[in-house]
Amino acid sequence: MQTLVILGNIRAAKALADYLHQHKIESHIQKEEDGFHLMFDESSDIETAKKLITEFAENPNDDKFWTASWNRNEVDDLSSEQTQAEPIISKVWQQTGVFTRVLGGIILAIFIAQLAGYSRFLFLHLGFPENLTQLSFSEIYRLVTPALMHGDATHLVLNLFWWVWLAGQLEKIKGAPWLLNASLFTALAAHLSQYLMVSSSFIGLSGVVYGLLGYAWLAGRLGRLPELKLPSGIIIMMLLWLAVGFAEVLNLRMANWAHLGGLLSGLLIALFEAKWAKKA
């Protein structure tokens, strides 16, 4: 038996092993101190295996690798130690940058302050102004700070998950300054949309999340974001949720225009970047 590749976690090792199996190349996963070894016997087509492994290394998030696991529908007989994949939250957290973590921490701290009885104070100083004509220059920040507050734990957890997972990856790819500017722009577009179409009574990071999602989807379609592969169906799910919100079929209070405004602003960023790249 010989080792051709060592992977850091069992899920990736299993996906690659299943992809090789799909190409009629059998392998065995063995846990060692330095990671998960993919072992091959002497009768294996080593040259083809090496090519497929290189293919996996160049784009491990490609759907075809995970589809291979789904199609095989089989679990290897691994020890409990081998099957202990990294916790999802820990793995996602490791893929984030400093800005993503800091803003996530601020949002969490503000929610704790809300629970501690400071909601009125926070709404007074961070909420969207009731009348833009009376907004002083020193309070211009209130155009974006409603994104830092949340109405309940479910609202908070959902938005923080999307923020850490999506914004964290975008920060790694595009950098913290880009993420800061994109967050400010999408928040402003989302909040102004909700204010102009409904009222100033809204809170939450959802508009920014929709903006980043719209950007990631369109930038990917335009070939501007090859490093980030959105799982199939996410954009459809988010659009369906947006439609459900506008249809008001659920007894939920949602800032639908903020979601739409954020989404459109994210698409606009992706279009602007693509156009700017052509001129450069």
TrEMBL record:
Signal peptide: none annotated. Residues 139-272 form the Peptidase S54 rhomboid domain. The chain crosses the membrane at residues 98-123, 143-166, 202-218, 230-250, 256-274. It is a multi-pass membrane protein. Its main location: membrane. Keywords: Cell inner membrane, Cell membrane, Hydrolase, Membrane, Protease, Transmembrane, Transmembrane helix. It is found in: Membrane. Pfam families: Rhomboid (PF01694), Rhomboid_N (PF12122). This is Rhomboid family intramembrane serine protease.
